[in-house]
Amino acid sequence: MEQPGKVGLFGAAGAAGRSIAAALSAAGRPYRVVGRSREPLDAAFGHDPLAEIVTWNPDDPASIRSAAAGLQTVIYLVGVPYDQFAAHPPLVEKTLAGVVAAHVERFILIGTVYPYGRARGNPVREDHPREPHTFKGRMRLAQENLVLAAHGRGGLSTLVLRLPDFYGPCIERSLLNGVFEGAATGKRAQIVGPVDVPHEFIYLPDVGPVVETLTRTPAAYGRWWHLAGTGTLTQREVARQAYALAGRAPKLLVAGKTMLRVLGLFNPLMRELVEMNYLMTEPLVLDDSALTKLLGPIARTSYEEGIRRCFEAARDAASASGVMQRSAAKTV
């Protein structure tokens, strides 16, 4: 593997950005974090002397070029609201144009399983047809097609790294986060069902080291890859383990597809979850043997260890929140 150049994380303030930044920092590599507003970037990365904090306007070509200037690799993590997925293709198209203009050498898109549609059989390899039957799947497919089509343009090399659903300590956007908060506080956990179907989750802190390695692996570019979790687990089993750590029996409020439809009448996010609920009822499990062959053994956190870490983080957060509330009450 070669001598690595500087990496920029576009859309860095989310959980995946923090995982990748931690891996870059652990490797002693200076990196740039890019986002629309400075405050969340300062909060997440201001403590790290290796982090350079930059804001951008992804609708302004000059701003994109400036944010990408001097980088060898751009890792694209830019999110959009769940009810605005049509923004994904034009946003990545503008970013790619700016990246090429800035003479960036490599571009990594952190992708999802959405472009596959329903699994024709498990585990799913990279040669599985990409035939999304949902709007969100079609938007993600269009996004990654733009990334792959840019491979070889202006000296740019591109790849897509596809992940299953993720979880990790205090990651609010994880499907499992409510379980850990419920176990830590003794409250009922709100969860999207069904809860007894095996599902694949990846422990998000495991992703960063893999992406850091890919930034300095030229042979990886020009295609998409899978990064799998450690097999499958039902959400009920996650809840059983998490609540057991607190010495409690699980308490769950499960929202199935029917309840999501009803809730969607009042909550746009719940409405948007309906079309993707097939992933909860029809498992899609990734085969990442190709990536393992390229990179060698990949370190993976077991579900048991990951659940323990997530529970402990939720317990510590709940304890800190209680201390702050008591302190505020005394001041009033």
TrEMBL record:
Task: Fetch the InterPro entries from UniProt.
Answer: Epimerase_deHydtase, NAD(P)-bd_dom_sf
From which residue to which does the signal peptide run? none
**Pathway given in the UniProt record:** Bacterial outer membrane biogenesis; LPS O-antigen biosynthesis
Give TM segment ranges.
none
Which is an annotated Pfam family here? Epimerase
Sequence ranges assigned to domain NAD-dependent epimerase/dehydratase in this UniProt record: 10-210
Into which family does the record put it? Answer: Belongs to the NAD(P)-dependent epimerase/dehydratase family.
Protein name (Swiss-Prot/TrEMBL): NAD-dependent epimerase/dehydratase family protein
UniProt organism field: Paraburkholderia ginsengisoli
